From TrEMBL:
Pfam families the UniProt entry points to: BCDHK_Adom3
UniProt domain Branched-chain alpha-ketoacid dehydrogenase kinase/Pyruvate dehydrogenase kinase N-terminal: residue ranges: 6-162
Protein name (Swiss-Prot/TrEMBL): Protein-serine/threonine kinase
Recorded GO CC terms: mitochondrial matrix
UniProt cross-references to InterPro entries, sorted A to Z: AK/P_DHK_N_sf, BCDHK/PDK_N, BCKD/PDK
Species per Swiss-Prot/TrEMBL record: Ensete ventricosum
Family designation: Belongs to the PDK/BCKDK protein kinase family.
């Protein structure tokens, strides 16, 4: 089955009215859409080149993927079903939290076993990882947005998990602080980061 594209604009406009009807429609859409997206990634995980599928770390990812596919079997017909479905996809999102480090470990195991210094030398693996991580972002965005619409007290300017007053400068500052924290932890020091821009500018 083909997956359906969903734009941020549509999610923002749809989520601006989180009525029971809209939440039900959102859940019904995800009920059909998420298994398609997750199944595509699960199938790819089972057929990766160079034996990556058989690496211990990747084998731990597969059950999480198939769990996501087989979890949403019941049809969503009312608000009670929608709430149960929302709790279920929250659990799926949590179960997938460690997928990125697990895949990174799997690639490290592969590089060690075939004596390869860089993933860039394995172009097919590189393309798969690009697809895999982009798809993962999309899946988590869809789940997070639906779950976020249930927040009874959202932050000002937020529709689900979409911040309509996003400050690029604040995002850059947070990212730089995270990077410096990692540097300090790993190397004991970190360079200073200067960020230039209008601190009052926000999107959209």
């Amino acid at each position: 089955m083909k997956q359906n594209g969903v734009s941020l604009r549509y999610m923002m406009e749809f989520g601006a009215r989180p009525t029971e009807k809209n939440l039900l429609l959102s859940a019904q859409f995800l009920h059909k859409e998420l298994p398609v997206r997750i199944a595509r990634r699960a199938i790819e995980l089972e057929s990766l080149p160079f034996g990556l599928s058989q690496k211990p770390a990747v084998l731990k990812v597969l059950p999480c993927a198939w769990f996501g596919v087989h979890s949403g079997c019941r049809y969503i017909k009312d608000c009670k079903d929608e709430l149960a479905f929302t709790q279920m996809i929250k659990m799926i999102k949590v179960r997938h939290n460690n997928v990125v480090p697990a895949m990174a470990l799997g690639v490290q195991q592969l590089k060690r076993d075939i004596n390869c210094k860089a993933v860039s030398e394995l172009e097919e693996i590189h393309r798969f990882l690009d697809r895999f991580y982009m798809s993962r972002i999309g899946i988590r965005m869809l789940i997070g947005q639906h779950v976020g619409l249930h927040d009874p007290d959202p932050e000002p300017g937020c529709i689900g998990q979409i911040n309509t007053r996003l400050s690029p400068m604040q995002v850059a500052r947070t990212a730089s602080e995270d990077a410096r924290s990692i540097c300090f932890r790993e190397y004991g020091s970190a360079p200073e980061v200067d960020i230039y821009g209008d601190p009052n500018f926000t999107f959209p």
